[in-house]
TrEMBL record:
Lineage of the organism: Bacteria, Pseudomonadati, Pseudomonadota, Gammaproteobacteria, Cellvibrionales
The EC number(s) this enzyme carries: 2.7.1.107
Keyword Cell inner membrane recorded: yes
Species of the source: Zhongshania aliphaticivorans
GO BP: phosphatidic acid biosynthetic process
CDD domains referenced in this protein's UniProt entry, alphabetically: DAGK_IM
Annotated positions binding a divalent metal cation: E31, E79
Domain of life: Bacteria
Class of this enzyme: transferase
InterPro entries, A to Z: DAGK, DAGK_prok, DAGK_sf
Protein name per UniProt: Diacylglycerol kinase
Length: 126
């Protein structure tokens, strides 16, 4: 396998960081769900530090919130690629978008269940 041409070392890391920030900016500008989940994350991340009673719980709370945002970014990327190929209805295009949406839903359910279990333990079992 041949390496892709381009910069190496710290310059490559700087370029990659710029592309990542560009992606975050694009998601914020064009994806309502990303804006909603990111805004909720800004509230939930500090709340995780308060709700969790130890480092393990806090890590789970934080990780599940961040996972939702990550999966939303991947789903948005899938949707953009599908729309770039064609906006015509095609069963595989719909399937790709539905699977991406299912991934977001599962990440949200995971987040909700982790937060719920930790909240129940903190407030109802102590």
């Amino acid at each position: 396998m041949m390496n892709k041409p381009g910069r190496t070392g710290p310059a490559r890391i700087l370029d990659a960081s710029k592309y990542s920030l560009k992606g975050l900016r694009a998601a914020w500008q064009h994806e309502e769900a990303f804006r909603q989940e990111s805004t909720l994350a800004l509230i939930m991340l500090p709340a995780a530090l308060w709700l969790g009673s130890n480092a393990g719980q806090r890590s789970i709370l934080i990780a599940t919130v961040v996972l939702v945002v990550i999966v939303e970014l991947i789903n948005s990327a899938i949707e953009a690629v599908v729309d770039r190929i064609s906006t015509d209805h095609h069963p595989l295009s719909g399937q790709a978008k539905d699977i991406g949406s299912a991934a977001v839903m599962l990440s949200l359910l995971l987040c909700l269940s982790c937060w719920g279990m930790i909240a129940v333990e903190r407030f109802l079992l102590n």
